[in-house]
Amino acid sequence: MEVAYGLVSYTLAKLFLLSRLSKKDNAQRSKKMEDKALEVYDVIRTIRDPEKPNTLEDLEVVSESCVEVQEIGAEEYLIVIKFTPTVPHCSLATLIGLCLQVKLQRCLPYKHKLEIYISEGTHSTEEDINKQINDKERVAAAMENPNLREIVEQCVIEPDD
Question: Where exactly are the transmembrane stretches of this chain (predicted)?
Fold first, then answer.
């Protein structure tokens, strides 16, 4: 009987220890994802609006809370961005999504998958635009257009600090 109590006590102690280690690992993983999200935000916040001299951060098109990062493999991440156009009928929402795609593809040093969406309910044609900005072939075709490419380059160029 004493041996049984000893085994139960030992097993419970191990389970408790593993539970604490698991919580610590989850906290570390969560902190790592928050840090990655801030890194992504630092890349996109300086993108300029195609029509105005302001950045997307200035216009509150993007914010820290609009970026979510999830680990999907060893040093591979899913980045989900939900941006908010300034008006529900913004004609440049697709161009803003394109700028987000281009800048992140160029600037992020690790392997990632991007999903960029318009925040739900903030644009009159959000479904169509979401399909366009997440279609690699359409993004590549858009960047082949010299006029469009020039506009994107002006929007994503790093500001002189």
Answer: none
